[in-house]
Specification:
With about 200 residues, the protein is mainly alpha-helical. The chain contains seven helices and two strands.
C-alpha cells in the first residue's frame, strides 16, 4: 500500500454539501428560481397551445391558420425578420419533392409538433456569418464547389469558431453564434466527406 491518502467521499455520498458563501448561494437560488419560472411559463404556453389546437379541431377550424397567425404575432412582437422551422410534420408521403396540388390539412396534434426559432436581426447576421464560414465564402453565389482543401479548412476552423462564439458578451449573442454555426455546419455538410 502506498503512502497516498485518499479523500473520504462519504459525506458526498450521504448528500452533504460544502458550506457556500451566502451571496453565492443566494445568486444560485435566484438563477434556479428564474429558470424554473421560465420553464413554467413555457410549459403553460404549450398547455394553452394544446387547448387552442383541440378547440380549433372541435370547431372544425384549420389549426395551422391559428398557429401561423400566432407565430406572425410573436414575430411582430419581438421585431423579428422571420422564423425558421426546426421541427416539422411528417407528411407520411413519398420522398417526392414536387409541389402538391393543394396544401394539406394538418391535425391539431401535428400542429403541436411544429417548432420554430424566431430570427431576429442579430440572429440573421450570425447565420450569414456562419454560412460564409461553413461554405468557405461561397454561400452567396448560389452554386458552390468544394474540395479536400475546403473540408480541411472547415475542420481546422471549427474549434476557433466555437471559442469565438463562447467569448461573446451576452447569452443571446452566444446562443445566436452557436445556433448559426450548428445550422451552417449542417447545411454545408461537405466538410465531413471532403477532408483528409
Amino acid at each position: 500500500m502506498s503512502g497516498h491518502a485518499f479523500p473520504d467521499f462519504s459525506a458526498r455520498r450521504l448528500g452533504a454539501t460544502p458550506a457556500r458563501e451566502p451571496a453565492r448561494e443566494r445568486a444560485r437560488e435566484e438563477r434556479s428560481h428564474a429558470a424554473d419560472a421560465e420553464q413554467g411559463e413555457e410549459a403553460e404556453w404549450w398547455r394553452a397551445e394544446r387547448c387552442r389546437a383541440e378547440e380549433a379541431e372541435d370547431r372544425h377550424a384549420v389549426p395551422q391558420d391559428d398557429y401561423f397567425k400566432r407565430l406572425e404575432a410573436e414575430q411582430e412582437k419581438h421585431k423579428c425578420v422571420g422564423s425558421m422551422l426546426i421541427v416539422g410534420v411528417d407528411s407520411g408521403g413519398s420522398d417526392d419533392e414536387s409541389e402538391p396540388d393543394e396544401e394539406p390539412e394538418y391535425t391539431a396534434e401535428q400542429i403541436l409538433q411544429l417548432r420554430h426559432i424566431l430570427i431576429t436581426e442579430a440572429r440573421a447576421k450570425a447565420l450569414e456569418k456562419a454560412d460564409d464560414f461553413c461554405s468557405c465564402g461561397q454561400s452567396a453565389g448560389g452554386f458552390a464547389m468544394f474540395n479536400t482543401s475546403d473540408g480541411n479548412q472547415i475542420c481546422a476552423g471549427i474549434p476557433k469558431e466555437v471559442q469565438a462564439a463562447l467569448k461573446k458578451k451576452t447569452l443571446p449573442e452566444r446562443f445566436d453564434a452557436l445556433f448559426a454555426l450548428t445550422h451552417g455546419l449542417k447545411n454545408y455538410d461537405f466538410w465531413m466527406n471532403e477532408r483528409q
